[in-house]
Design a protein that fits this description.
This protein is of the alpha/beta class and about 250 residues long. It is about 30% helix and about 25% strand. Helix 2 packs parallel to helix 7 and helix 5 crosses helix 7. It is elongated, with a radius of gyration of 20 Å.
């Protein structure tokens, strides 16, 4: 299998025939992988396109390649899922970001709700680390899109974004009755298919303390409250369980 390396769009020739890897990617190829001209290389632009290439020149500062084929990456799911995660304590958010990226999320947005233990602190600095975690997970899982990892929102700001989705799934442990996760996903798929586009689905999960009753009530006005079974899932488990279910129901784990 050819190696899988990131090439930013600005390093791809306008005619699409050549591309150049620089920075850490070039250094790793030359110093660690000992890449040589003539070897095969698989690259991605972070926006969904996979490039199968042949190396034409390799130096410490740059690796130049001839593009053989360029096509949408087969590793990207057919559904666009945004994960809104209540900000947890410790390093749990890093775990969520890594695994959500592997599972196919296209956007990850932390938010602060009433029962969050953590308070905002150095979020720009932490976001740079979170983005790096997502990038490394993309490479490990051979994806072709780099998910956006955004700065945290307030609960109210998060709710204002939900109407743009075909389905907004508010995971609430106190929810009983109502449509199931599967039914919501199937309805979203049907809606998107009628418009010949990919379904857009949001998953909203809480932090360690869950949601206050008034937050759940506000969320119900712009999303669909759903349960995740009879067991109480930890805040780092719930988003990954819901995301896995969405991918399974849309046949992206087959």
């Amino acid at each position: 299998m050819a190696h899988h390396y990131y090439c930013p769009p600005e390093n791809i020739a306008a005619d699409g025939r050549t591309l150049t890897l620089t920075g850490d990617e070039a250094a790793h190829l030359v110093r660690v992988m000992r890449i040589k001209p003539g070897q095969a290389l698989s690259c991605f632009d972070g926006q969904g396109t996979r490039y199968e290439c042949t190396v034409t020149a390799a130096g410490d500062a740059a690796v130049e390649c001839a593009v053989l084929t360029a096509a949408p990456g087969a590793a990207e799911p057919s559904v666009q899922v945004t994960l809104y995660a209540g900000y947890p304590k410790g390093d749990k958010l890093e775990h969520i970001i890594q695994k959500a990226t592997e599972l196919g999320a296209v956007r990850i947005v932390p938010f602060f709700s009433r029962f969050c233990v953590v308070t905002p602190k150095k979020e720009e600095q932490k976001n740079a680390r979170y983005a790096r975690i997502a990038f490394e997970a993309v490479k490990q899982s051979a994806r072709d899109c780099i998910p956006a990892v955004e700065l945290p929102l307030s609960f109210a700001a998060m709710l204002r974004q939900l109407p743009e989705y075909d389905a907004a799934l508010f995971c609430y442990e106190a929810q009983t009755g109502g449509p199931s996760l599967r039914e919501c996903v199937e309805a979203a798929v049907q809606k998107a298919a009628a418009e010949s586009r990919a379904p857009r689905i949001a998953i909203i999960t809480g932090s360690e303390g869950g949601f206050a009753p008034e937050e759940a009530q506000a969320a119900a006005a712009v999303s669909t409250p759903i349960g995740l079974g009879p067991r109480i899932l930890r805040c780092e488990t719930a988003p990954l369980a819901a995301l896995t279910a969405v991918m399974a129901f849309t046949e992206n784990l087959e």
